[in-house]
């Protein structure tokens, strides 16, 4: 398993993992009609390419035998100033076929190392028990005071905050 900075040419595979991740992790939590529209498109690939190339982001991928199987997108927190942590993991997705092999753990550790061991936070959709259990197992502390509501389509759901110190 290799953790490395993402490259522009990883954008399509990252978009594929993102779509697979949404379809599996959020089934039953986000409306099916919204998930059906969540597809790999040229626009989605280009947005990932822009994030990968943005020097403000820490965009990491994990490879198994030269094949990208997961990614982490993190950065300095400027979007949610009510949360007093300097860094945030915006997204962490592992291809379901490669989960439970240590890839997510390795990505989180690599991110924390890249920010000098400083604390960071992330959000998980309420009801995504697999993610919640994973973050708790890695010593993420639930911080309900930083929970938020997000809307997809016409449905609003709670996203729950976890802090890693």
Describe the structure.
There is one protein chain. 33% of the residues lie in helices and 32% in strands. The model has no long low-confidence stretch (mean pLDDT 94). Strands 1, 2, 3, 4, 5, 6, 7 and 8 form an 8-stranded mixed beta sheet that branches. It has 5 helices and 8 strands, in the order E-H-H-H-E-E-E-H-E-H-E-E-E. With 165 residues, it is α+β, with helices and mostly antiparallel strands. It has one domain: Gcn5-related N-acetyltransferase (GNAT) (Aminopeptidase, 3-Layer(aba) Sandwich), CATH 3.40.630.30.
Query: Helices and strands, in N-to-C order?
Result: EHHHEEEHEHEEE
Rg over alpha carbons: 15 Å
CATH superfamily: Gcn5-related N-acetyltransferase (GNAT)
CATH topology: Aminopeptidase
Largest sheet: 8 strands, mixed
Which structural class fits the helix and strand makeup? alpha+beta
* Molecular shape: globular
Total number of helical segments? 5
- Helical fraction: 25-40%
Number of domains: 1
Count of β-strands: 8
Layout of strands and helices, then pairs:
Elements lengths: L1 E4 L5 H15 L6 H6 L4 H12 L3 E8 L2 E10 L10 E8 L8 H12 L5 E6 L3 H9 L3 E2 L5 E5 L2 E10 L1
Parallel strand pairs: 4-5
Antiparallel strand pairs: 1-2, 2-3, 3-4, 5-8, 6-8, 7-8
Helix pairs in contact: 1-3
